[in-house]
Write a structure and sequence with these properties.
single chain, about 80 residues, mainly alpha, 3 helices, elongated
Length: about 80
């Protein structure tokens, strides 16, 4: 029974630490791009098209960015 007096506060502290670490990870952008690392292993590092796509992905795009007319999806 006396062990519970130690284990309960330790468990609460661990939960608080886990919540703080999770909040730090979310706020620092750790979960912003989950797809690119998984797909990057499929491409050759020296491929010019892959390097160009990587550079474009690294550049922030403006919020009101519109595609040029030749890249827009056709409307039905």
């Amino acid at each position: 029974m006396t062990v519970l007096y130690i284990l309960i506060p330790v468990a609460i502290v661990l939960v608080i630490v886990a919540i703080l670490v999770f909040n730090w990870a979310v706020n620092s952008g750790q979960y912003d791009d989950l797809d690119s690392p998984a797909h990057s292993i499929l491409f050759d590092e020296e491929d010019p098209a892959h390097l160009k796509a990587q550079q474009q992905a690294e550049q922030p795009q403006p919020k009101d960015h519109q595609q040029p007319a030749d890249e827009q999806e056709p409307r039905a």
